[in-house]
UniProtKB/TrEMBL annotation:
Transmembrane recorded as keyword: yes
Transmembrane segments: 6-28, 48-67, 79-101, 122-144, 156-175, 187-209, 229-248, 280-299, 319-339, 376-395, 407-427, 434-452, 458-479
Main location: membrane
UniProt keyword Cell membrane, yes or no: yes
Name by which UniProt lists this protein: Sodium/glucose cotransporter
Protein family per UniProt: Belongs to the sodium:solute symporter (SSF) (TC 2.A.21) family.
Length: 492
């Protein structure tokens, strides 16, 4: 069977979306006067919009396509990660956000200097920047590869459409433009998920009841084998532990998410940010898993519709292009672009915030408002160009096994960062010297288990976080601590 052409109407819908996103950046460009506007939106963002932005930022295009593919080929075990994100939000609100707002931070890593020293601030900030440049490249690369067979667009053109447009509207609109485009993109993602699921169910003989009956019959929800403990496989206990620490990293130590806590004008609005995100996380991801089950039911009844030797990783865009009406299919593909762009634009603005506040403004002569603002925009462009260039390199070199290897490095960078914030806020006796010992121990431990064991990469973040906290606690008496007055400002 040949894959259906994308079609003129679908292209019109897709490009109309891309132009619309660009116009949002242009609209908010007039409000960008200072670095404070560029990174904090002057506190003008309502809490619900910041919450939608957090949701859109954490849901990339790869997630949009890989979750249905995972449910189609396997089961729903990875759903547990979504709900662990909800469980940690009260901890974030009551223990972390008061510090971030009280200290009036732009870069979250400024806290680490106030609590420990400049070395910890630079370690965390540079780790974040390097990781997110790589993340931009990976998301763009994998999105281009996934869409290329279905939209008849050269992968380099897809990279251009995703990457360059992100650079332009982030450069123009700052965090305010990023958040309001995230709102559009988050709504598109949510509507697309529901629309796809409902559409598939109408095409399945027996409807929604048959979808869930067949999945239950084939043991595609939470099979008994997934409840077993394993050091190497991604079973439910491993996923619960791994996602707990991964979500802690994202919501307490990652600039792209934490930055949303400071764009509102009050802590009450920040609370709405977390509640809005929690509501979306509670409802929308379930539809992505349900889509996988619905696709399984549909193609079980219609196996002749799948091409021979088809890569099931692209099962969602394949269904969208081949089965959904013209125009609607274009809207869904636009939603996949949206998922990619929401993650990338957030990374660009956050990288810019880290460099401007943690390096440019921190060292050398004092910078004026215009210098900081100009630097922020320049860094946005440079980070975007580096990410796009890396993505082009990956396409040209035809890299494989990249996503798993890159994911395994999250623990190497994210675990120690999470541990530093946990150590700083909850361990009063900790100090700069013990924090450094903890980071060194964490990095060495993760490199060892990664290089010499088969331990599942979900444990890397756990090891990185706990090593910083434990070693930082044990070694604290060997180093000088801050005064009681200083500690009162930066510890729980």
């Amino acid at each position: 069977m040949e894959i259906q052409a994308f079609g003129t109407l679908n292209y019109i819908v897709l490009f109309a979306y891309l132009i619309g996103v660009m116009l949002v950046g242009v609209y908010f460009a007039r409000r960008q006067k200072t670095a404070d506007d560029y990174f904090k939106a002057g506190g003008r963002i309502p809490g619900w919009a910041a919450g939608v932005s957090v949701f859109a930022t954490t849901l990339s295009s790869i997630t949009f396509m890989s979750i249905p593919a995972k449910a189609y080929t396997s089961d729903w075990t990875f759903l547990v990660g979504q709900y662990l994100a909800i469980l940690i939000l009260p901890i974030v609100f009551y223990f972390y956000i008061p510090f971030f707002r009280k200290l009036n931070l732009t870069s979250v890593y400024e806290y680490l200097e106030r609590r420990f020293d400049i070395k910890m601030r630079l370690f965390a900030s540079m780790s974040f920047m390097l990781f997110h440049i790589g993340r931009i490249a990976i998301i763009t690369y994998l999105t281009a590869l996934a869409l290329m067979p279905f939209v008849n667009i050269d992968p380099l053109t897809i990279v251009f459409l995703i990457g360059v447009l992100c650079i332009v509207y982030t450069f123009l609109g700052g965090i305010e433009g990023v958040i309001w485009t995230d709102v559009i993109q988050g709504i598109m993602l949510s509507v697309a998920a529901v629309l796809i699921f409902v559409t598939i169910c109408f095409h399945v003989d027996g409807g929604v009841s048959e979808v869930f009956r067949l999945s239950a019959e084939q043991d595609k929800y939470f099979p008994s084998s997934s409840f077993e403990w394993s050091w190497t496989n991604s079973t439910l206990p491993v996923l619960m532990i791994g996602f707990l620490f991964a979500n802690l990293q994202q919501f307490t130590a990652s600039q792209d998410v934490v930055q949303r806590y400071i764009v509102t004008d009050s802590i009450e609005e920040t609370k709405k940010t977390l509640l809005t995100n929690a509501k979306l996380v509670a409802c929308v991801p379930v539809f992505f898993f349900a889509i996988g089950s619905a696709l399984y039911a549909f193609y079980s009844q219609n196996p002749q519709l799948i091409p021979e030797n088809f890569n099931t990783g692209g099962i969602l865009p394949f269904y969208v292009i081949s089965q959904m009406p013209a125009g609607i299919a274009g809207l869904i593909i636009a939603a996949i672009f949206a998922a990619s762009q929401s993650s990338i634009s957030s990374s660009l603005n956050s990288i810019s915030a880290c460099y401007t506040m943690d390096i440019y403004n921190r060292f050398g002569e004092e910078k004026n408002i215009q210098q900081s603002f100009n630097t922020a925009r320049i860094v946005t462009v440079i980070a975007g160009v580096l990410g796009v260039a890396a993505s082009v390199y990956l396409i040209k070199s035809n890299e494989s096994q990249l996503w798993d290897a890159f994911n395994s490095l999250i623990g190497l960078m994210g675990g120690p960062m999470t541990g530093l914030f946990m150590l700083g806020i909850f361990v009063r006796r900790a100090n700069a010297g013990s924090a450094l010992c903890g980071v060194i121990a964490a990095v060495v431990s993760i490199l060892f288990v990664r290089g010499f064991t088969d331990l599942n990469f979900f444990f890397y973040g756990v090891i990185g976080t706990l090593m910083v906290v434990i070693v930082g606690f044990i070694t604290a008496p060997f180093f000088k601590s801050k005064s009681t007055q200083e500690l009162d400002l930066v510890t729980e």
